[in-house]
Amino acid sequence: MTPARGAADPSPLARKRARKRPGPDWLRAYERMLKIRLFEDRVNDLYQRGRMPGLAHLSSGEEAVAVGVCLGLRDDDYITSTHRGHGHCLAKGAAVDRMFAELLGKAAGYCGGKGGSMHIADQERGNLGANAIVGGSMGIATGAALSSKQRGTDQVAVCFFGDGALGQGLLYEVMNMAALWRLPVLYVCENNLYGEYTPGTETIAGEALARPRAFGIPAAEVDGQDVRAVHAATGEAIDRARAGGGPSFLWCNTYRYSGHHVGDVDRAYYRERDEERLWREERDPLALARAWLIGDGLTTPATLDQVHAAVTVEVDAGVAFALEADYPDPSKVDADVYA
Amino acid sequence: MAVEMKRRLLTTSKAVAEGIAQEMERDPAVFVMGEDVGVYGGIFGATEGLLARFGPERIMDTPISETGFIGAATGAALSGMRPIAELMFIDFFGVCMDQIYNHMAKIHYESGGNVRVPVVITTAIGGGYSDGAQHSQTLYGTFAHLPGLKIVVPSTPYDAKGLMIAAIRDDNPVLYMFHKGVMGLGWMTPNPRATGEVPEEPYTVPIGKADIKRPGRDLTVVTVSLMVHRALDAAEELAAEGIEAEVLDLRSIVPLDREAIVESVRRTRRLLVVDEDYRSFGMTGEVITSVVEGAFDYLDAPPARLALPDVPIPYARPLEQYVLPSRERIVAAARDLVAGR
Q: Interface pTM (ipTM) of the complex?
């Protein structure tokens, strides 16, 4: 399987709308993507050193999708995330230190140590929660969009899920309802080519984009390694949603650098090393962004090095904070079962 | 001068609908979604008349997509609304249990209290009218086993309205289970106990508080929902024989009012649990355990129970009537208990 290339350019409408909006802070987008990459590197490191319980699912390689989408959102817009959700949480503005603390099961974590890697919710930034059931948050995101409509706000909801979730019936129930009720929801499918350990070619019949289109939902295919392309396509969908135009569907071609989870190290039986190498060397979202940021004169190598240094300091501090933080007291185990 | 108060009588279904309507008037965040809740008014009348008052934006007919709209109810609740989602029959839980249990019931805990999920799931329970194995169950034991949900099971019009208002105002997911036989519907077997006095103004009945529906000294009958009616019928018959049965209506399964159960059994010294749910691993076992833990030394006889045998609910009338607890069977069990048989 080779990387998907040449995804469609943003449509004329998206380009026109994008011109009207103030341009995004691309350096900040780069910083967010880098933060996700370094965060995930440290998660893997903590796991390998036996400092982190559980089996986290890393999103390295998929940074441009999370950041490109969230770049177009406001703080009060909603997202729901997945088992592979660290990138979405960070892209929506979660703090590195409380994220690490949650992953280590510490009281200072986003969920007081009760949720862990797959359940980080950050209500203040509209993150309604990552979710460990494949496709499980599709109803929640759709309901948040329903809520926006009922409350008369122009908030939108973004539902992240992977290509593996196309096998879940819930998607077709909620796309039907979202189209019927013209809900401001954006379904973002991160097509990283594998559902756990099985390639999508073995699990997805027909044309994936024909599925949302069958419900009358506009659907676009995007190069998920290009943060600009993701941002442009998102902007078009978000504009439509805020204007009452209903749901959209984005199919983002991307790649999962790591295994299904941190323990999935020997992967040769289901995908080839050459494939992984190709994506890392030729389609890396950070390297691509770095190239055009410098090439277009938007920044300098020295500035990007400064960004790298600053993010490294932030991530290191976050790890140190989490390692030193206290575990929750067992006396709190039955708190929060009920509000 | 004595003023004769005019008693206002309502069926349970009208009491439920009135409770919902009053909360919808008070709080714009409350809305209803479900299959046939609009023009039809809910197939057991729980939302009758609401569409005309509140319109289709707040009384939403949904596709037959329980997973989808119950998931959406969770999302709407997380973002500022207070949805009431009707699961037409509790038996349909199988298609949407992931959304109820893995999401709605757990998110508050998983988030360390970050998020709240004020949803009411209304659902019809119970058999007795030959609707077969997929439309006749009660299943509250199945849900009560899972932490994170509250479960209310009213038996009277008064409790139904008060518990509905309490459920809507609660910040937790509440499963509001109404037995078809207590709703007072014209097409069901007539049930005089399904009509009762209901105050016009809004009021709450606290979730988690049992209620002594009939006091007695000789045994405690602990039960819920339609079986409260059966137990009251049985208690009248027993009284004629000199046996005074106390009928304790749990009203809520979660939280379970263990104190009220224990307090009653300490007085009467005998316990009979009557349940329309399956016998094993269910409400009867939990109530008896509470009494063994809290009133063991007070018992004059081993606790007894009547429940559905562990079989799917059969269709044929003689078979269904054979498995359902009845007035006659409650009377016989109470006699045996008091006689020490």
A: 0.90
